[in-house]
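WARN  no MSA supplied for this record, continuing single-sequence
INFO  ligand: flavin-adenine dinucleotide
INFO  echoing inputs
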Amino acid sequence: MDKRKIAVIGGGAAGMVAAGYAASLGAEVTLFERNTLLGKKLGITGKGRCNVTNNCTPDEFIKNVTANGKFLYSAINRFTPEDTMEFFEELGVPLKTERGNRVYPESDNAVDIVLALKKNCIKNGVRIVTERVTAFIKNEEGTLTGVVTEKRSHHDFDAVILCTGGVSYPVTGSTGDGYTLAQSVGHTIKTPTPSLVGLTSDDEICAATMGLSLKNIAISVTDNTKKKVIYKDFGEMLFCHFGVSGPVILSASAHLRPMEKHRYTVSIDLKPALDMQTLDRRLLSDFDKFKNRNFANAFDELLPSKLREPFIKICGVAPDKKINAVTAEERKRVVTLLKNLPVQITGFRPITEAIVTSGGVSIKEIEPQTMRSKLCPNLYFAGEVMDLDAYTGGFNLQIAFATAHAAAEAAVWQ
Ligand SMILES: Cc1cc2nc3c(=O)[nH]c(=O)nc-3n(C[C@H](O)[C@H](O)[C@H](O)COP(=O)(O)OP(=O)(O)OC[C@H]3O[C@@H](n4cnc5c(N)ncnc54)[C@H](O)[C@@H]3O)c2cc1C
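INFO  complex generated
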């Protein structure tokens, strides 16, 4: 019997796994990558360490998928985080699990993951073509038979797996070509928006405290239109020249839809371990200790130095007021602000800076078991090109790997 001929478009996380796996199942696979190197984005993941998956159960995994988690149910149960770990260990990359079940290569080097996937492709006989795909070739029935690249046409494929990623970090090659290709066979693209991205704010406090990282804080995000708290988290954040960033802010960004100027307020609880009453007692004791000082020097033991001046400004108490003259009402305002320091959000940072793209090829037009297009019989999808995204923690790469497995299997066996 003739081998199935499969074109995989995009040599990133999803494409390399799909190509290697399809070839290992006996298909003749051509992997198209527009860059001269495979896995350019993969090589910078996890700050160069590659958080390759999250060591959790499929159910926990789905809870961490912020868009369309249920769609992944079948794929993730057939290629679990445990399978990902076993896969890389078998490819000769020892792994370790860190805080939050985040899994990294023991070497702390993302390049080891890229090289292992590339080696796996080569070992299984994948033909790598470093050309940018610009169009599909279809027959009269609408079945794909080939692809056009910037250099030439490639014919006689039985199936195509589209793994071109989203539009974040376009320097790595993900520029949204997959959306145009999917649209050319009738697919709908849910408008791409940034996710896991910094948030902009005009509030003076951000520029004034630029570079300040706050650890062990809690945040709650209010949707001012719905007058509802929509997100809460605990951890680390960062003030930047543009607004706010850092782990809890990136995670919060996945929930801020639709984004509208001043629709969302991030409230920072600077002292999450203390309730209002305990914090008030602590403040009273500090005020008593420093009673002859000016209000400007009241927070030497309570707040990081960079935050003190902007915080005092927000309190609305004159900095040269003597602490023993601060009224009970003013103290109450201080306690409230320590527990709820507001930052008004004006928008997302650009999508080019986002860790992932939210939106993409509508999952309503894709079969969840096989990743096969419902509109084009021999087109399959894998990875971020689809309208799927998750929190940080290794979940996005796990989406790429699980969907790549499902797509490869179906493309070879259907
Ligand atoms: C800075 C950063 C850090 C991250 N860290 C992590 C992390 O630690 N853990 C985690 O789980 N996720 C992380 N992510 C997210 C993760 O990298 C992506 O979700 C994942 O790479 C998506 O894989 P993909 O294969 O779908 O797309 P990509 O990895 O973007 O690969 C798509 C590939 O397709 C190629 N391509 C595009 N168009 C064409 C075309 N027309 N012809 C041929 N080739 C084409 C591109 O060049 C690219 O190589 C991070 C993302 C960023 C930006």
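The two ends are 14 Å apart (CA to CA).
INFO  checksum written, moving to next record
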